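Predict the 3D structure for this chain.
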Amino acid sequence: MNRILTIVTIVLVAFASAALAEEPAAPSADEIAHRAADIAGGNAWEKVRFISFTFNVIREGKVVASFPQAWDRATDTYRVNGRMPDGIAFSATINLKTKQGQGTYNGAVITDNAVFQKVFGVAYGHFLNDAGFLLMPLRMFEPGVHRTYDGTRKDSCDRVWDLIKLTFDDMVGLPAHDTYWMWVGRDTGLIEEWDFKTPAVGADQPPMRIRLSDYGRFGDLLLSARRTIAGPGQAITFTDIKVLPEVPKGAMGAGPSAGAP
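Done. Predicted structure below.
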């Protein structure tokens, strides 16, 4: 009897060991992020010099704010216009590295440095937020971006998403101190949702959930043109998207001046 039990035990252990050996290891954050980036455009991103778009804020089905923007990646020149948080119209053409530029405020050319600094802060914030929102799948491997695998989510139809947690160092061209969770469809490789928290959100509060949709081909990039924010009837759309290997003539205006006013 003891011999039989010993044989059975050995067989069971062998089966268990084989099952464990065949169980696939959890994917790494970089493997998932590379797949998502490759699907979004991958190496094609390196050949893009110029990208422009309009960032639209939608509330209850109506456009309540629009910010046309353009980025010359070779010179790090960024252009944006719209309205300040207090409703005053502005335009700015800035250099992201030198922090210099020029612009208008309430319809007048900016000549006062204090006004320029205020407008620059708003313009740079649009670069961080708006361009970051549009291009996130392609910017996950920039210096200062940290990726961590954070498990899976599954719906009632057994669709599976792999979650990548993103955190950022200061001033890497993405929102520092925010935390993002990218939901990457295991069957599509697309980022279909992202959740994020800012430092202002309490640790016991859930992150904001944003669904990505309206994927389309722009040049050689595959980008989502709509973000729907769960709950408040708000969405972000990207219109007039252009992705080009060269800067169209006149697209960046006069360009940044030699120094801030």
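The mean pLDDT is 86.
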